[in-house]
Write a structure and sequence with these properties.
Blueprint: H1 3-11, H2 14-20, H3 26-34, E1 43-45, E2 59-61, H4 63-72, E3 106-115, E4 132-136, H5 148-151, E5 201-203, E6 208-211, E7 223-227, E8 233-239, E9 251-257, E10 260-267, H6 271-278, E11 308-311, E12 317-325
Parallel strand pairs: 3-12
Antiparallel strand pairs: 1-2, 3-8, 4-7, 4-9, 5-6, 9-10, 11-12
């Protein structure tokens, strides 16, 4: 296990995260977005350091670069509803930079929410503004904030592990249709009617009624939400997610409108890109991936969740996807 990852875990707490995360009220953010002139919001992106620090100044990725790459990505495609998995809780944090102090290669994520009933192929109409896009994923060592004790129990402390006590978990490799984790039709939040949760449901500034898992610690890294701008785009600065046993690399995503969850899904990456990123530290110190699940063998992977990615001049990556919903 990379010592930077191990040391940084010891420093994170929810109180510290809230103090450093630069959170603002949802109402304030929506007001700002409503006044948008129609150009994509610019979000800061740091250089591809393996030891990012909270509050570090960063160069900006231009809105033009984001919208140009979104134009290359598939559009007007309905996103597939997927399990939210065993590691979700309502972090209730509106922030663009979700790294805290996680080491890893910088990843700029841009997600555009599109109403498929109005969407056209060039994306000029159908954008859903003032929706809240929430993402969460594991760190470079395969560990989720809030669930470190379970995540660290496998791979020699390298991440993954067992889901929280009583949790459904995610389906085994190769399980058809998402396996056990696939929610029944009409189930809000993607947790299968609340099975395996903490018994509590979300009631934050942007999410209400989704079943939460019982956390084992107070970490909040690599979790957060942003409100879509006038072009339906939400942007995040994070690190490239790692991997853990039994799953291909993925980012979890929820879309909330008026505190109702209208989409729970997962996004994925090309295998060649994964090989490139994981050949570098700190990812290279998490060994055994050659024996793990890949896109082809993952029971949840779906082509509609594949992100379009470009490497940037500073060594970071820009990953985008158009999320189709029925608004």
């Amino acid at each position: 296990m990379n010592k930077d990852i191990e040391a940084s875990r010891l420093r994170v707490s929810r109180r510290r995260a809230l103090a450093l995360g630069g959170t603002i009220s949802l109402g304030g953010l929506i007001a700002a977005c409503s006044g948008n002139s129609g150009t994509a919001t610019t979000t800061s992106t740091a250089a591809a350091s393996t030891t990012p620090a909270s509050g570090t100044s960063a160069a900006a990725t231009s809105g033009d670069a984001v919208t140009a790459l979104l134009a290359k990505a598939p559009q007007c495609v309905m996103s597939k509803e997927e399990t939210q998995g065993p590691y979700w809780f309502d972090v209730d944090s509106i922030r663009g930079d979700i790294r805290e102090d996680r080491p890893g290669t910088t990843l700029q994520v841009a997600m555009r929410v599109q109403d498929n009933s109005q969407c056209n192929v060039d994306g000029s109409i159908g954008a859903v503004s003032n929706a809240v896009v929430e993402i969460w994923h594991c760190d470079a060592g395969g560990v989720y904030s809030g669930f470190e004790s379970g995540s660290l129990s496998a791979n020699g402390g390298g991440g993954g592990g067992t889901p929280p006590a009583g949790g459904m978990g995610e389906p085994p490799s190769g399980a058809p249709g998402g396996g056990m984790g696939e929610p029944p039709s009409g189930t809000p939040g993607g947790m299968g009617g609340g099975m395996g949760g903490s018994g509590e449901t979300s009631d934050g500034s942007y999410s209400f009624g989704d079943t939460e898992a019982a956390t084992t610690d107070d970490g909040t890294y690599l979790r957060g939400a942003q409100t879509t701008d006038a072009n339906g785009i939400a942007q995040f600065t994070t690190i490239f997610p790692g991997w853990y046993m039994g799953r291909t690399t993925h980012i979890h995503v929820k879309v909330h409108i008026d505190k109702k969850t209208v989409l729970t899904s997962q996004t994925f990456f090309d295998e060649t890109l994964l090989d490139e990123v994981y050949s570098q530290s700190p990812y290279s110190e998490h060994t055994g991936r050659e024996n793990n699940t890949n896109n082809a063998s993952d029971g949840i992977y779906d082509d509609t969740g594949l992100m379009t990615v470009e490497k940037q001049s500073d060594g970071s990556y820009l990953a985008v996807i158009n999320l189709g919903i029925d608004a």
